[in-house]
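Following the same procedure, backbone shapes were mapped to integers, as reproduced here:
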Amino acid sequence: MPANKLCDFCLSESKGLFNRPEELSDGHFVCRDCKQKIKKYNLPVKYDLFQLLVVADPYMREMIMGNYLEQHNADDTIAKFFPIPEMKLHRGEHCINVCDASITVAAAAIPSEPAEAVIGNIIGSMINDIPDAPEGVESVKVQGKLYETDVALYFMSDHFLNCHRISDMVRSGDDKENVHVIEKKLTFTYAVENADLFFMRDTLYNKIVAAQANKKQNLIYINSENTMTLTPGIYSIPRNIRAGTYYVSALNDLGLNLRDVNGHLHDISSYDRVKLDEGTLLECTGEYQLRIKPRD
């Protein structure tokens, strides 16, 4: 092996007898730092998409996903990374994430009866939606599983279940230990391992769905001079949409997020109005109508 072989994951050149990249069974090389990062995410140490994503700079991840989808069939990518789960779902529902999770709730709020254990059997009357425990009350940490589908986010535990709209998840990406939900002024904090990987899977899934629907390129339907309809895609301000203040109406409320100039993601799907500044991005996973506010 050459003395200064590059790592195929971070493309760095490691020198020294004890810091040389290791050759994997597929012929790729991985440095010690990348190998440790991949193991931290409980991923197999091999050259594949999510291994590249977890070692990459966060601002490079969506570009890596886009490059991957340009070279791979969308249906094959869904089958590889989002297989059908063992859990029965509702008809037409597709699973994006499954992981162990916990939430700390008020002890008195937990029902004594067992909760429904199968997502496909859940109806509205079975949903408890127990939020984070308020300060000063007796609380307990409840272990369960967090399921994200293209329809909802479910927390399943022995005695209660929570169900949230996908658009109520906070997608800031700053917290790597929790998935946050804000719903009707209530907060739900689900402690998970590697929350950033949870949202990487969420982003990839929505990109694949857009590609499957032949919407890989940004599609903006112009309804009138001041009104447009956005379909799934990522839109740059002002390259795709001119800067300004817009009234927002949901046509298919599956998610609308604003990435600010600092790279932070803000869920704006429930906003009546939004100000789009130059240098920001709109990330749309549903369909939304935007009508520009006339100048005063």
Q: What stands out?
A: The helical segments are 32-40, 49-55, 61-71, 74-81, 195-212. The chain has a mean pLDDT of 87.
